[in-house]
Request: fold
Amino acid sequence: MSLKCGIVGLPNVGKSTLFNALSNAGAESANFPFCTIDPNVGLVSVPDERLTNLANLAQSASVIPATIEFVDIAGLVKGAAEGKGKGNAFLSHIREVDLIIHVVRCFDDDDIIHVEGGVDPERDIAIIEEELILKDLESVEKRVDTLKKQSKSGDKAFKAQLAVAERLREHLENGNSARLFEANEDEKEAYKDLMLLSSKQVLYACNVGETELDSGNDYVETVKKIAAQHDDEVVMFCAKIEAEIAELDAEEKEMFLEELGLTSAGLDRLINSAYKELGLITYFTVGPKEARAWTIRKGTKAPQAAGVIHTDFERGFIRAETIAYNDFAELKSEKAAKEAGKMRQEGKEYVVADGDVMLFRFNV
Reply:
């Protein structure tokens, strides 16, 4: 499955610097608003030491990690929903993403302009949230108008959907995000295809100063309180440091992080948090030709996990020969795991666990 994350925030909070560090795609980064005129897209490998270890054990000829697509969306400002600062175009790009990564400035620096005059995470988050809600309100109002016309036919289904849409409109008018709107699965049919911006999950990325990566600061604590209201994840990173790390090779990166007293780069934590926020896990296929990581949702059963590789695997699924990652790593090979009784034969009802090493048997 393909995971797509949209990086949003006010201008000059570190979005494009973060994107550059993630993908080395070279998005322009400058000390003025709207330097990113069109959305930049980068495909980033998901860091996973387990895949590297499995590939070494199996002496795989190629290694294919899971990937995440990141979209750097130009800085939003107050009034974006009305078209200010190219806002309409930028907001439309958010509809296509699975997860919003909201970059929040959590450091003081008089040399870097803040479009609102000073650092205030609570205000900055509220501005972005309000613009998403206003854009959603515009979409829902159009849906209400359409359903009113359709309801004139007397069709009960249209009338029921109109009632839901009107209730949602009132909810948004009161400044509430679509994520907080209570509706059952049938009721969601009235607006599901609108892909409402404020219904998307959010991961907050706090851009802090170089000396605050360990301890954080009061700004970060403010973001954490806001995130807790929706059980959202919060990750701290320093855009300046991440930009430096992106220029290093693996060995130099490890030494640099050690000097800073860090066990992992902020970007690695951000990617792993994105997985957690969306309820994603990884399973592996391993052999002499290839070691590969596959992304699925937590709770996926074996046939559907097989279908991620190819629909024929799901259609003709017989069983999955499965070894837990820890067992494979300890016993060093598939053969040794099988001899030790650690290879399991799992059927159609098996729920795949994070780190499972799998071989699917199927009929063509």
Q: What stands out?
A: The chain has three domains: 3-116+199-277, 131-198, 299-362.
